[in-house]
Amino acid sequence: WNEAIRSELKAVExxxxxxxxxxxxxxxxxxxxxxxxxxxxxxxASVVVTLKNDRENNVVVKPFGAHYLSFQKGSSTxxxxxxxxxxxxxxxxxxxxxxxxxxxxxxxxxxxxLEAWNNLLSLPQIFEVxxxxxxxxxxxxxxxxxxxxxxxxxxxxxxxxxxxKSTGSSFILPxxxxxxxxxxxxxxxxxxxxxxxxxxxxxxxxxxxxxxxGIEFALTAYGLKDKKDFLKNLQKAVxxxxxxxxxxxxxxxxxxxxxxxxxxxGSLEKGKLANFIITSGNIFDKSSTLYHNWVQGKPYVLKxxxxxxxxxxxxxxxxxxxxxxxxxxxKNAATLSKEGDTLKIKGTLKTERDLALLTFTPAGExxxxxxxxxxxxxxLQGKGQAGNGDWLDWKAERSGDGKQASAKSKDQKxxxxxxxxxxxxxxxxxxxxxxxxxxxxxNATVWTNEDAGVLINTDVLIQNxxxxxxxxxxxxxxxxxxxxxxxxxxxxxxIDEHSHIAASKGINEGSQSxxxxxxxxxxxxxxxxxxxxxxxxxxxxxxxxxxxxxxIGGQTQLIKLRWGYKPDxxxxxxxxxxIKFALGENVKQSNWGVNNTRFPQTRMGVEQVYEDHFTRAxxxxxxxxxxxxxxxxxxxxxxxxxxxxxxxxxxxxYVQSEINMLMKVAERHHFNINTFTHILEGYKVAxxxxxxxxxxxxxxxxxxxxxxxxxAIPYNGSMMHxxxxxxxxxxxxAEMARRLNQxxxxxxxxxxxxxxxxxxxxxxxxxxxxxxxxxxxxxxxGKDADVVIWSDNxxxxxxxxxxxxxxxxxxxxxxxxxxxxEEVRHxxxxxxxxxxxxxxxxxxxxxxxxxxxxxxxxxxxxxxxR
Length: 866
Prior knowledge:
Layout lengths: L10 H4 L4 H8 L5 E4 L6 E4 L1 E4 L5 H4 E3 L4 E4 L13 H18 L2 H5 L3 H9 L4 E4 L3 H13 L4 E4 L8 H6 L3 E5 L5 E2 L4 H4 L4 H9 L3 H7 L4 E4 L8 H11 L4 H8 L1 H7 L16 E4 L10 E6 L2 E4 L10 E6 L6 E5 L5 E5 L6 E8 L2 E6 L8 E8 L2 E7 L5 E10 L38 E9 L6 E10 L2 E6 L9 E4 L4 E4 L1 E6 L29 H7 L3 E6 L7 E4 L1 E4 L17 E5 L20 H24 L7 H10 L4 E6 L2 H13 L6 E4 L7 H7 L2 E4 L17 H7 L4 E3 L10 H12 L3 H6 L3 H6 L17 E4 L10 E6 L2 E5 H27 L4 E2 L20
Parallel strand pairs: 5-6, 6-7, 7-8, 8-10, 9-39, 22-25, 22-26, 27-28, 31-32, 32-33, 33-34, 34-35
Antiparallel strand pairs: 1-3, 2-5, 3-4, 11-12, 12-13, 14-15, 14-21, 15-16, 16-17, 17-18, 18-19, 19-20, 20-21, 22-23, 23-24, 26-36, 28-30, 29-31, 36-37, 37-38
Helix pairs in contact: 4-6, 10-24, 16-17, 16-18, 20-21
């Protein structure tokens, strides 16, 4: 049903020989390619062809080469999907639809797309991804549906090498290494992220590190702006440590194996295609020349194999009274200089068999000297014309070998000195992942959030990731760290009930009224610097929500802020699943412009969306229970979990009428709304929320930023709390989340809530709303060691989080942070120095374009470009 799934496309049916495109690849040594139209999530079947200039039927090696996939929607004109999580959901649903079509589905309908999809599953599966995290996401899909993907990567796999290796996937690696940045202007240089600086330095080492890790890979020219750079970049990869044998294998035997054509290509054996190249020497040496590329027995002459090699140093006479020293390198580049003169003059040299043509412009003259002659043994000689038109006799006598490129053996070559990989691969990443330790905090003011209240001069011992002891005069065993917390405050970690950090490429899948099939867990971004920044504000857990663009949004994900861990390792183990609903202006698209036509357009329509979808879900549950065949529907599966009280609802809400409406809808369908988030008119219906069993996660004092919040008041949180509603304060904002401790203080200021109860608004109460209060949210023996050391009363504007622990692991330390900031400055300076040197040596550079990080909010429909 979706245009992004183009499974019925067969490249062999539209393939046409294009000798100009083929020549580009022949000139860099390729003889066979797998070709596919790179458009959509499922891109259909590729065709494997040789690069011979012949009729199509004569160059096709394998009509159906591989099934190509991606997360990119491509040219589809349909709205869905608009986000990465939508693309993943669509792909997962397509696998399920294909499974259904192999059985009962075929009896119900004829679907050529699903039939083609199922046929594609027998081919090699090549999945193009945008970065190393997308490679891990693709692997999860492969594992779920018993597939084996060949991942066409981005070239940043080295940044999560252990995780990449654990997938067991084969890879296709690009050699499109980034150009250096023009960093001469220090202000412009400050706009380049440390991640981009480090990637420029380390990207050429990616193939070598993949090889050392034992990961199977092929190399591709796909993605290069200029195909001529391929051999240069290949040689650079070897220079950075890729063994020559592995490089050759990655261009021949491995791609043949991955495409299933080892009987025809990939090695020089009797009976296989006569595809081979002839070079002047080791292809991985810069001095080597590619002479011939034979494709299916047809020779393509790239350079005359019989042309004499004239590289060396010559003494040129006859041009003027002075003699010139003429230096010719292995690539026939000519440089001239006069004896005792440091000025170098570049010349143009062309040779064909035993003929030579040299042109150069002497210093101080405008017209060039043109010399034509023959190669006579080791010397050159002939006639020419000076710039003024006078004819002359010239001779160049060989005096030495000069500078020969890459004369060292591979054992003598030294790899470039490179910086280290950090986790995550960004500023404030660490070289090793931290682990839990035993820590004893002495003499702290402990905010327990339990019946004991606030304890003065009390010790807390954390061990094996848990709170082990609370009391006075505690001791710890050998090897334990002891933290003097005198005059400091110790609390449980701050928990943000409503956040949009740590998600990639879209927080809303707002293209349809209901997108309950999409999941935040599929797009967790472990590299988001906001994880570290919020640890610096004492946050230890965040509930990552889908946005509020549609009535029934996506499945949420509670995470712990384990900075440096892999995406799946951020997930809060054992937490209940939730889903995001929304009401009001965002859902009915009040501010989306006049051209929007998606249902609903009114608050009445929002209610109808819920009624329709829960009625469908009830029918779906009955069908599943009947034992009859059914088509598994990811959208209805999530809704069924709500009705079965296996998944819980957190709902974006503002006005009392809609809050009332949704509670009544839920009661008609026999479930409860777990949490109303934002809930700025909650003070009007707090008694009804209490009776229904709903909690409220609100803003402390946001109001008047759109019409439906004009009646918000700063007493809202305290008034709901006084009615017995479980109340939390949330951020919905990456910046505010760093100061949720101060947000809690506003309940004391405005609502006169006690400090201890106000502190629970950002710790224990959000834990209760998310059903994890048995694990976190208070200082209690046996709970997770999610603790923070504050310099002052945590409700004070002067309080700073000095240390933040998650599961007993110290992920933030303010003193360590100061050292890390210094390390970041030094690392930037080191790489910038290398960039300046490269530019001075004539290496190409790219202009600096400022990259602004996308900070998502509830109503954002945009997707970050990187």
